[in-house]
Amino acid sequence: MGAGNNKRGHPLLRGGSAKRERYTHGFSASQMAALTALCGALVPSLPPADRRNGHHHNPQPEEDGGSSKVVEEFLLASAADPPVPGEVAELMSRKCLPEALALVRAVLWLLGTRLGSLALCGARCLSWRFPFVRRFDELPLEHREAALRRWSRLTLLPPLRMFFLITKVFCLYVFYSWTDENSKNPHWRAIGYSPPPADDEPAPAESERPEKRPLDDGIVETNKENDASLPALLAEKGLRVADDAARNVCRVECDVVIVGSGCGGGVAAAVLAAAGHKVVVIEKGNYFTARDYTAIEAPSMEHLYEGGGFVSTLSASALLLAGSTVGGGTAVNWSACIKTPDDVRGEWARDRGLPLFATGEYAAAMDKVFERLGVTAGCAEEGLQNKVLRKGCERLGYKVESVSRNSSEGHYCGSCGYGCRTGDKRGTDSTWLVDAVSRGAVILTGCKAEKLLLEPGSAADGRAKRCVGVVARSTNPAITRTLEVTARVTVSACGSLLTPVLLRGSGLRNRHIGKNLHLHPTALVWGYFPDTVPDLRGRMYEGGIITSLHKVEGGGPGAPARAILEAPAMGLAGAGTQFPWVSGRDMKERMLRYGRTVHLFSMVRDRGSGTVHGERRVAYHLDATDRENMRDGMRRALRVLAAAGAAEIGTHRSDGQRFACGGATEAALEEFLDGVDVVRGPQSKAEAWTLCCTAHQMGSCRMGATARDGAVDARGESWEAGSLYVCDGSVLPGAVGVNPMVTIQSVAYCLATGIAESLRRGPVSRKD
Predict the structure, then answer these.
(1) Is 266 annotated as a binding residue?
(2) Which of 388, 401, 491 is nearest to 726 (CA)?
């Protein structure tokens, strides 16, 4: 075991919370009393005699105690115990949108009063003793649980349901993800959850350490610099740097500036640097390598995902996962590598007037991407979830397809969603960006682009404006200077959620900027497999994440799939936030079965779309056809789970919809499946609701044959501002229907090749 400074993993990713001296959430004492009572109802202390035997997974006894002891300790634990309520309040104050936080504060204030508690909880607050009305924190557990169930079902006051959802998500997330100074959570052993701990492998001795990380020749980590050191370091990297002391600005000149280092930005940087151009990549996230990753959920989500993983649509009906680190989504995705389907390419070329997708150039670009990522087609050993998917499909006679991955065939890593600790997965941070740095590219980390530098365009260009660079600012408080990076070409590659924000915030007004957002929405289902199933060993978080898929057939031969079934990665705290809450006891029993609860999801190529209104402000509409296709996928997935031998199956509907398979007839199963539907989100008017998840965002600055059809042209250049290009998922004309990583990289390769050619034909002059 490592110790002290020899702990494996970057300090930011190890977790471990020393007791805080003070919190900054600003909640009053009465609000905290109400929040503590809420946490205690969501995750209550349960005497061992109250639990139902046989409904949980028993971990193997360990040296310091048997399984029954650790399970009893878990059942006795409560989220009302410190430090959970304080950590919940702190996390909500940092992650909630302002209106959501205002709602939480208002409801907690009401619950901290007797009249407010009476108004929100009803007659259960009344007492025969003076003062005859009890505050929420004075209610017995069963009354608090009843109030929570009522709020979850309430249709006349949507804000109360939203309050329930917010407190449930944050409470369960903190309870199951909080770690102590040793990167341990006291409840993991009882659940049988054993992520690779941060200190399970000693760090190499100094003499054995690699001399440098793959990107060190080009990395400038602004969070380690200050106003004095940053300009000198940039100059060392071969950039022309000038200080403008009067404006407190550091000016940097290059040929190409790229905002974002993910799927599109990494490829564009490699192609343009290879063409001989000085490239600067601006990335707001940090740089981590395989030796830095820990697979510890909370710190990994905080530092590798946009908004720490707490980004949702404005209606809270969908959770949006997007990478926010060097490598972007490729650093945390699930390795699936699927080329753009032929029918989608044909549709985009034919119906959208974009001939690129029907060309040999695009096909060659996909091959080039596969080659650079080292994509393999096989899998030496599948993990539990993919084994279940394959077994259930084969028993039912459904076709199962193997999924190619950007890793070796022996890659057996279930924690790639928190960064690949083995270094086997090949994201842009270990491929395209390495190529770019080897050709002189510079990557500024911890640096956020604030706006584009625009000036009047030329009549010859036909565009009203011309982009000459980017204004950026380091997230490091020690750097007070603004960075102005001027360039012949500017590329926005900060993803479908943020590229529209940058363009709109800089004054561009094309009506397609921020529109047409596609998400590949998913609906989750689950099946519980006891340890006694002989051919299905292991835990749901072990093994390759996506190695198999099943396509739910369309309306006829050759018709596109209505939905795709795959297995997700789901950390322990993530499972807690996604499982429906119907009682504290039920939730604890669900969590005790976590390791053997297999999840599958139904994903659709969405016809509906959404709008990016601003940073973390996304609206989305799921249309009727999407809902129908998701429903058919859910029903198919539940059949697959039952056929594979699940003892129980269910959905994530808020009322805990589930079905016991043992001894059930086929007719009973069909009756249950007939009742499975895609219910709407928490702001719907129905008593039952659910959440959907998505990790794919596309189309919010789509390319179009004319300015009436898209935000950029077929070469990726803005219709409004010359020399401004977009090279990320936002340029895709629509939803791909499969994992979009290869499609985004292939499009970026083609667009960057075109940019390089335009620069070769003639330099774009720039005003001083």
Answers:
(1) yes
(2) 491
Quote the pLDDT of residue 589: 96
Among 416, 636, 388, which residue's Cα sits nearest to residue 545? Answer: 416
Rounded CA-CA distance 187/185 in Å is 6
Q: Which of 54, 50, 71, 75 is nearest to 62 (CA)?
A: 71
The answer to whether 507 is annotated as binding is no
Beta bridge partners of 551: 564
- Residue 164's nearest CA partner among 175, 148, 178, 180 is 148
Q: What CA–CA distance (Å, rounded) separates 499 from 75? A: 46
What's the pLDDT score for residue 714?
97
| Catalytic (active site) residue 57 | no
**Catalytic one among 512, 520, 550, 696?**
696
CA 639 – CA 646 distance, rounded (Å) = 10
326 marked among binding-site residues: no
Q: Are 543 and 414 in contact (CB under 8 A)?
A: yes
Return all residues near 550 (Cβ < 8 A) that are at least 6 apart.
389, 393, 398, 399, 400, 401, 564, 565, 636, 640
- Residue 257 counted as an annotated binding residue: yes
pLDDT score recorded for residue 58: 44
CA separation, residue 515 to residues 478, 619, 712 (Å): 37, 10, 13
User: CATH 3.30.410 in the chain, residues?
Assistant: 375-410+519-694
263 annotated to a ligand binding site: yes
Q: Which of 518, 233, 547, 498 is nearest to 381 (CA)?
A: 547
Structure tokens given for 608: 């509906």
254 is in an annotated binding site: yes
For the chain, give every residue range classified as CATH 3.50.50.60.
219-312+420-512+703-760
DSSP 561: P
456 burial type by CB count under 10 A (0-12 exposed, 13-18 middle, 19+ buried): exposed
> What is the SS3 assignment for 107?
helix
pLDDT at 17: 67
pTM: 0.94
CA dist 597 and 142 (Å) reads: 28
Q: CA triplet 204, 205, 210: central angle to 5 degrees?
A: 65
Of residues 758, 761, 727, the one with CA closest to residue 365: 727
Does 133 carry a binding-site annotation?
no
559 phi/psi in degrees, rounded to 5: -75, 145
Residue in the structure block whose two tokens are 């100094």: 206
Length, in residues, of the chain: 768
Tell me which DSSP letter residue 732 carries. S
Alpha-carbon 51 to chain mean position: 34
State how far the Cα of 22 lies from the Cα of 3, in Å rounded to an integer.
28
> Which CATH number applies to 375-410+519-694?
3.30.410
Q: Taking every pair of C-alpha atoms in the chain, what is the biggest distance, in angstroms? A: 87
Matching CATH number, 219-312+420-512+703-760, of 3.50.50.60, 3.75.10.10, 3.40.50.2300, 3.30.1640.10: 3.50.50.60
What pLDDT shows up at residue 7? 57
Give 10-residue mean pLDDT values along the chain (768 residues): 53 81 92 98 85 44 58 96 97 97 98 97 93 96 97 91 97 96 92 66 46 93 96 96 94 98 98 98 97 95 97 95 97 97 96 97 98 96 97 97 97 94 96 98 98 89 92 96 98 98 97 97 97 90 96 83 96 96 97 97 96 97 94 98 97 97 95 95 92 95 97 97 98 97 98 96 53
The answer to the question of whether 718 is labelled as a binding residue is: no
The 10 Å CB-count burial string (b at 16+, else e) for 691-702 is bbbbbbbbbbbb
